[in-house]
Amino acid sequence: MARLIVYYAHPGHKYSHVNRYMARAAGAVEGLTFVDLYRDYPRFDIDVNAEQQRLLEHDVILFQFPMFWYSTPSIVKEWEDLVLEHGFAYGAGGDRLQGKRMMLAVTMAGPDDAYTDAGYQHYPLRTFLTPLEQTARLCGMRFPAPYVLFAALRAPDAGFVDPHVDGYRRLLEAIRDDRYDFAAAERMDVVTLDTLPVRIGA
Fold first, then answer.
1. Per-residue pLDDT tens for 50-90?
2. Rg of the Cα trace of the chain?
3. Global pTM value
4. How many other C-beta atoms are found inside a 10 Å radius of the C-beta of residue 169?
């Protein structure tokens, strides 16, 4: 079984259209570690030693958040700045995360066709995630395709919340049970409910 930790970050949790339900589902999955960054660090006083120990104890580090202004919520950046230290995560002697995986579960307000060269966001989603992908690479980590919900603001009215949350639960359970096809995910741009690379059976 893979050792999985989920870091959840949403500063407006109680107003969330989708992420609060995803977080509830993640927190109910047995055999993974669930961390709500805004709940645990309301003043951003991140415990670096504790977080580094968590990273050492897990194989897959998954960040769940809504995209804010083409980036992560601010506490994720603060976490990165403090926890991924030189000599620990990168640089001379900084090989402690080599071979692990960094994953993302993100929700986007805009529809999928907005994130194209011809769309109103002008760039593919993966372009906006480049800093996180390069962070993973610098730390010697793999970066499989993120699990994405587009048009998240319309998801409740469109009936997409429950299916997406169920897909997220299946993704987490598949990672935990070594049934997630990481090789396939690394060849994909994004993973959605319809394209989950989950192997059937043990």
1. 999 999 999 999 999 999 999 999 999 999 999 999 999 99
2. 16
3. 0.96
4. 16
Residue 79 to residue 90: CA distance in whole angstroms: 15
Helices (H), the chain: 19-28, 37-40, 48-56, 74-83, 125-128, 130-138, 155-158, 161-176, 182-186
Q: How far apart are CA 144 and CA 121, in angstroms?
A: 23
Q: Are the CB atoms for 197 and 188 separated by under 8 Å? A: yes
- pLDDT (tens digit, 9 = 90+) per residue, 129-140? 999 999 999 999
Report the residue count for the chain. Answer: 202
Which sign does the torsion angle of CA 124, 102, 71, 86 carry? negative
Other C-beta atoms lying within 10 Å of the C-beta of residue 149:
26
Residue 25 CB contacts under 8 Å (≥ 6 apart), including other chains = 165, 166, 168, 169, 172
Of 103, 144, 28, which is closest to residue 20 (Cα–Cα)?
Answer: 28
Domains of the chain by start residue, with CATH: 4-195 (3.40.50.360)
Q: Where are the beta strands (DSSP E) in 67-155?
A: 101-107, 147-149
